[in-house]
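Our platform keeps sequence and structure together, in a single record for each protein. Nothing more is needed to write down the fold, since each code stands for a local backbone conformation. An entry from our holdings is shown next, in its original layout:
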Amino acid sequence: MHDFIRKLVSLRFLPAAHIERALDYLSDKATTEATRGLSQYVRKQWLRNATFRVEDWSVYKQTIRTNNDVEGKEIC
């Protein structure tokens, strides 16, 4: 289960055009009801979402991977 979740979380590091195919592959490897449900959730909430496109949350080759403006900055 731990490895499966790590792979799902890592999808954002792939090029946007490859994410759906990678999720399809992971979904085929889902062996428990929990992993199948998690795969369906990711597909529904992140891939088929009308608010965010896959390109919006993919961080492939992005130098800044956060939306927190103060993260990584020194505070004096």
Observations:
- The two ends are 42 Å apart (CA to CA).
- Helices lie at 2-9, 16-29, 33-47, 54-57.
